[in-house]
TrEMBL record:
Residues 10-120 form the Coenzyme Q-binding protein COQ10 START domain. Gene3D superfamilies: 3.30.530.20. It comes from Candidatus Thermofonsia Clade 3 bacterium. InterPro entries: COQ10_START, START-like_dom_sf. This is Coenzyme Q-binding protein COQ10 START domain-containing protein.
Length: 167
């Protein structure tokens, strides 16, 4: 398995950062670059075993992605994994961790374990450009997350903003 980690700081309190990330329907708000996510269904209440059905879109190419929540300990972390054969990777495990720096700032840490698709060809591609693409994707997500949460915090709005329903 390949490993990747990305961390960033948001100028918002831990409870707001947790509430935003704990809502899978917020994912499209931070996937605003070349890779877009659409959330179709979320098993509620969120708990280990809950499934989230999404579509990942890169340009005109779409791929269904079915993940399962593996662990959840509010407000410290949650972890999800791709259900075998139901996503763009051979394997995918993602841990989302949150640490209060102080009353107004939170560190977000994304830890990935993944196996690229396409066998040896995917491994070569990942070795050549995978790290660059992952860093770019997560930097874009961090920027969008900061923009969203910090604008909500400055307006005193709820962290997830207007509620969406993904059933």
């Amino acid at each position: 398995m390949r490993h990747f980690e990305y961390a960033f700081v948001v100028n918002a309190p831990l409870d707001q950062v947790w509430a935003f990330h704990d809502d899978p329907t917020a994912l499209p708000k931070v996937m605003t670059g070349a890779v877009k996510m659409h959330v179709h269904h979320v098993d509620r209440p969120l708990q280990p075993g809950s499934r989230i059905l999404m579509t990942m879109q890169i340009g005109p190419v779409r791929r269904r992605w079915n993940v399962r929540l593996r662990a959840r300990e509010a407000p410290r972390f949650f972890a999800d994994e791709q259900i075998e054969g139901e996503g763009p990777f051979r394997a995918w495990r993602h841990t989302h961790a949150f640490e209060a720096i102080d009353a107004h700032r939170t560190r977000v840490i994304d830890r990935l374990e993944y196996e690229p698709p396409l066998g040896w060809l995917g491994k070569i591609g990942d070795a050549l450009i995978g790290g660059i693409l992952m860093r770019s994707l997560f930097a874009s997500r961090a920027k969008a997350t900061r923009r969203w949460l910090e604008s909500q915090a400055s307006r005193g709005a709820s962290p997830a903003g207007a509620e969406q329903s993904a059933q």
